[in-house]
Structure formats: structure tokens, C-alpha cells
Amino acid sequence: MFEPLLLFIAAAFLLAGFVKGVIGLGLPTVSMGLLAVAMPPSHALAIVVVPAVVTNIWQTFVGPYLRGIIRRLWPLMAGTAIGIWLNAGMLTGPYARYGTIVLGALLAIYAAIGLRKFSFSVATRDEKWMGGIVGLITGAISAATGVQVIPSMPFMQAIGMEKDELVQALGVYFTVATVGLAFNLTSEGLLTAATALPGAIAMATSFAGMFIGQALRSRTQPDTFRRWFLIAMIFLGIYLAGSAIYNLMR
């Protein structure tokens, strides 16, 4: 690894951890978006996966809602795992060159939805079957891009969870999804000794960023921070998709 790239990885995960510390989510999304500026999504995901698993496991067990979350979200989680498994190879196969375009578009869509505060509700009787479908779609997208927020995030907001329950649910869900991605990466030979040093740097800086973000959470306006964060994600998504399309057309 070239030293400037290690510094870039450290800065990306410090920022991503900070965002997660302030608003409770965003580490894989921010880090994948930033790393994709300098490397293919498959290589970025190989670095992201371990810090994402560890931080999400920590988030999974912070709260009393775990049993209820599993009971409500098991179709979503099962569908996501199946979708990731069925689409293994998307990051390295013949369509891999389109991954950055899809990633950029998803970042922009995710941020635009967040800014508009678009919301809908899902009836309790429809949670299970809709969750399975949403999971399959999210799994397919995640297998191609490493991002798991579309359409799972709007769905989890739509089923009416309490704020603290939703934060814990995100930890549970993203743990399952990221472990599924880790199996794909291992089978594709992307998780190797070469990712150990970047992964260790990513782990350390993401936790440092989370600590700083949590310390500053009470001193900042989370809604204001979240708005500017989403605006930045839109511009990052447009840049990623635009630059990837430009490179394909050259």
C-alpha cells in the first residue's frame, strides 16, 4: 500500500466514524463513497467490511429491543442475505465496472430522500412479506455496491419503530448484511493479508471518529449536521457517477 493511500483511508474512516457517532449511522455509506474516489468498490468494501461488522455488533447489543427486532425483521434480514448470496460476483464480474456508477446514484438518491424527509407507513400485517421483498432488492444492490441503505432504510423507518429501537435495529440489520458481504468477499479472494493493514487503520480511525462524534453530539444540532451531511452525499454521489461514466466513454 502506498502511504498517501493509507492516510486517505485513515481520513475517510475518521470522518465516517464521526458521522456515525453524531447521528448513529453512516459509517459504511460514507466510507464506501469516499474510498470509491480512489479505488474500485470491491477493494473499498474489502477494507470497509471489518470495521463495519465490529461497529454494528457493538450497536446491536446497546439496547433492550434485540428479541423484538429479530422477530419483526427476520424476513428483511433473510431476504437480504439471500439477495447478497444470489448476486455474489457482481463486484468482480463483467458488470463490476458499472458498480461505481450505481454506488454514486444510490448515494445521491439516499441523500435526496433524507433531505425531503419522504415518509410512508407499512401496516403491521404487511411487514413480513414486504420485508422479504425489500431484503432481496437490498441484497442485490448491496452485492453490487457494498451499500445497504436502499431500500431497507426507508422500509425500517416506515414500520414505525421508536427512535432508540430503530438505532438498535440498524445495528442488527447491518451486521447481518455486512457478514453476508464478508462471505462474498472471501469466496472471491478479496479478503486477504493485503487488506490487514488498511483494515486495522480503518478500525482504529473509525472508533476514534465515533468517540469524537459521540462527545460532540450534545453540543451540536443533529438535524443541521444531518442536512449538511446529506447535501455532501449528493455531491459525492454525482461526482462518483459522473466520473465513472466519463471514464467508460473515453
Describe the structure.
The protein has 250 residues and is mainly alpha-helical. The protein has one domain. The protein contains ten helices and no strands. The chain has helices at 3-23, 27-35, 41-60, 66-86, 99-116, 127-145, 152-158, 163-187, 196-217, 222-249. Helix 1 runs parallel beside helix 9 (196-217) and helix 3 (41-60) crosses helix 8 (163-187). The radius of gyration is 17 Å and the shape is globular. The mean pLDDT is 83.
Short descriptors:
250 residues; mainly alpha; 10 helices; globular
Give a topology summary.
Layout: H1 3-23, H2 27-35, H3 41-60, H4 66-86, H5 99-116, H6 127-145, H7 152-158, H8 163-187, H9 196-217, H10 222-249
Number of strands: 0
Low-confidence stretches: none
- Indicate the proportion of strand residues: under 5%
Helix-strand category: mainly alpha
Q: Helicity, in percent? A: over 70%
Overall mean pLDDT: 83
Q: What summary fits the major beta sheet?
A: none
Q: Which value, in Å, is the CA radius of gyration?
A: 17 Å
Q: Could you give the distance between the termini?
A: 28 Å
Shape: globular
Order of helices and strands: HHHHHHHHHH
Number of domain units:
1
Count of separate DSSP helical elements: 10
